[in-house]
Amino acid sequence: MVAELISVGTELLLGNIVNTNAAFLSREMAALGVLVYYQSTVGDNKDRLKEAVRVALLRSDLVILTGGLGPTRDDLTKEAVAEQLGLPLVEDEETKRAIAAYFKDQKKKSIPENNWKQAMVIQGANVLANHNGTAPGLLIEQEGKKIILLPGPPNEMVPMVKESVLPYLKEQSNEVLYSAMVKIAGMGESAVAMEIEDLIDKQTNPTIAPYAKTGEVHLRITAKADSLQEAKELVKPVVKELRKRFGIKIYTEEESETLEDVVVKLLLKHKLTLITAESCTAGLLTGRIVNVAGVSDVLKEGFITYTNKAKRKLLDVSKSTLKTYTAVSEQTAKEMVKGAAINGDADVAVSITGLAGPGGGTKDIPVGTVYIGCYANEKATVKHYIFSGNREKIRELSVVHALDLMRRCIISNYEK
Amino acid sequence: MVAELISVGTELLLGNIVNTNAAFLSREMAALGVLVYYQSTVGDNKDRLKEAVRVALLRSDLVILTGGLGPTRDDLTKEAVAEQLGLPLVEDEETKRAIAAYFKDQKKKSIPENNWKQAMVIQGANVLANHNGTAPGLLIEQEGKKIILLPGPPNEMVPMVKESVLPYLKEQSNEVLYSAMVKIAGMGESAVAMEIEDLIDKQTNPTIAPYAKTGEVHLRITAKADSLQEAKELVKPVVKELRKRFGIKIYTEEESETLEDVVVKLLLKHKLTLITAESCTAGLLTGRIVNVAGVSDVLKEGFITYTNKAKRKLLDVSKSTLKTYTAVSEQTAKEMVKGAAINGDADVAVSITGLAGPGGGTKDIPVGTVYIGCYANEKATVKHYIFSGNREKIRELSVVHALDLMRRCIISNYEK
Questions:
Q1: Which end of chain A offers a freer environment for a tag, N or C, measured as fewer CB atoms within 10 Å?
Q2: Tens of pLDDT along B133-184?
Q3: Min CA distance, A226 vs chain B (Å)?
Q4: B390 close contact with A: CB closer than 8 A
């Protein structure tokens, strides 16, 4: 099956936002063995939208549109597709109820008139529920072609794809596709790529597709076969080889599991409580740990000690340490993590202190210098990193490496 | 002038990388008043590449291709464009010398054979020097159309655009484009759209383009004219009208300024120190405030009090309050923010306590219930919100609304 993605939105054509939707959908299609030959982007203009859909339907079996389903006047995707397919828009009772319910949930007194526009759907379309917004998705089959309309905001589009679109597309293909996932932390994309260059070069079936996110690389191993059993058999040896090559660097093989999930799972498994102490990341680490629902059983409290004064007051970092070694030092990271664990009476603690820049760098302590401490089993370990990138990137990398250090500390101190 | 961008690369179609080139070029074109009506992405496939170029030349005056100029066999952009335009490839002496010089600079002993492929250029093309790689850019004029080929790596493409492409295009265009920005916080996209429906309806020049991000709506007002002065004059009354309609809801008119920038600027302006106390957001608010470089002059410390025990210990929230009203209540938010301000001896404090879910909701306190407190001028204000969406969305909305509440508190307490 050949697919084409059409991203709709003038903000994309003006370069106000980067098109992450196309990358996400392309990855998901690749994982299904669906070939994406074209991606295109058009503005909120009905004629150009219709033309893009016409061309796409000539050369592709599946056309996925994202964006332009909002309540405003310049949201025209639904209208353009309906006209191009020669189908009318009809009111969908269920969607109408869903919109009313959505606003009721939000305790909104009145529903903006223009929101009812979103209750109109293309006749005969399969309506895909939107649990994170008011614009439903639409799935239309016409003359052997499939057209799917999805909302533009990633927090609405991504769940809809996982809940509705992928299961539907899986049913369509007669070939069985099976993928395994191997997630690696604390290694850059090119370092991982070099490790597996030989495997990538000779790959046909299964294939290994690397996907890099900040501080992590996810390897998706996908095999095609006539039966699920066969596909699994093809994937197995590759995963085994990857385990051999990356070892402890692999933090999970679960598609949906994040690094913070793994850390919280380890803490729960060993009935350990956690305290955090953050300086340059100032809460980003704890904020990410709390992504995990049910974390309240392990996380006691967190200290954001951005100033030296706060480090002394809340974490008992000694004045002389700060004076002799400065706030960005192994000694400070160590005293921070010990102070956090003791003052908060927790089994495990983590500390981050570093220089995210842009200013303040010196020859001895360049911008990007970060010390991460982990306290476990009454021992404190501190690791030294020098990250490159802008302020935001350095802080993100600090969070990922802190999570990975916690994972390794807990495993080495409490496992087996 | 109507432009079209064609990004070339199978890695884009597989979703292995996000297309930042298209966003960059679109921004640059918009700034020049060049209208980008289409962006498209094709893989390293000669036939599909030729077809994409053919279609682009039918509907656009300027076609910019990025990628596929590398030395490897699957880099086909130059070959495809040459064939489509019916022009031969000829060796370019200067490029050949440049490639030799590049490898000499890099202290490489030998030059890989396939690199000489990059010395071949389309006959009659204007060769654009590449100071950061070996693939030159090409600029071709044919039958009133312009075709520009650029290397894919951003660190090669971006400098080439600034050095060669923009100056060339500036000469071509006789129209000037000017944009103003108005950023609104605490209002949804559809509510904003309804407020300005009449303006949007009658818009021609200038135009108003809304862009929604979590808890915010950005309005870009863009005018075209023969001179910058004229364009500015066209934009002015629209901005004035928007100020009248949205008032305090507008947090900035600076393109590059974020909500956290504004909050920190206000704190610095009035020499106010800040303390944060977060429960359900667990550091996300403070982490975002610390995006602002130089925040260390205002932010003293932050408390992440995820458990009741921590709320009592670190913020002196009374046992009876937690018992009588629970942790997710106006009273708790008020005691949290007062406790933070007093214990931390700060001028301004902010507190967030809420239920992000997915579990734990009741009829009285449904998932999405959030109380945000702001302490300023020795007074505590608490606002009650009910957000909808998943755990992540609820926490993001809490952060944005907390920043906006801080902004309003500081303005009402310390301005004029």
A1: C
A2: 888 999 999 999 999 999 998 888 999 999 999 989 988 877 777 889 999 9
A3: 23
A4: yes
What per-residue confidence (pLDDT) applies to B72?
Answer: 74
Q: Which residue has the higher pLDDT, B109 or B129?
A: B129
| DSSP 3-state of A37 | strand
* DSSP-derived 3-state class of residue A106: coil
Q: What CA–CA distance (Å, rounded) separates A101 from A97? A: 6
State the greatest distance between any 2 C-alpha atoms of chain B, in Å, as a whole number.
85
What SS3 state is found at B267?
helix
**Amino acid in the structure at residue B120:** M
Average pLDDT of span A322-339: 97
**3-state DSSP helix/strand/coil percent for chain A, to nearest 5?**
45, 25, 30
Instruction: Give pTM, 2 decimals.
Output: 0.79
Mean pLDDT for B379-386 is 96
Q: Which of residues 50-69 of A touch B (CB under 8 A)?
A: 52, 55
**Chain A residue numbers touching B37 (CB-CB < 8 A):** 13, 42-43, 45, 48
With beta carbons under 8 A apart, name residues in chain A contacting B358: 293
Residues of chain A in contact with residue B41, where contact means CB-CB under 8 angstroms, are 22, 38-40
Check if B43 contacts A (Cβ < 8 Å).
yes
Q: What Cα–Cα distance (Å) separates residue B226 from each residue in B231, B232, B365?
A: 8, 11, 58
DSSP code of residue A365? S
Residue located via tokens 């890695």: B11
Cross-chain residue pair B25–A15, CB shorter than 8 Å: yes
* Rg of chain B (C-alpha set): 28
Q: What is the mean pLDDT of residues B335-340?
A: 97
Q: Do B40 and A36 touch (CB under 8 A)?
A: no
- ipTM above 0.90? no
- Chain A residue nearest residue B199, CA to CA: A73
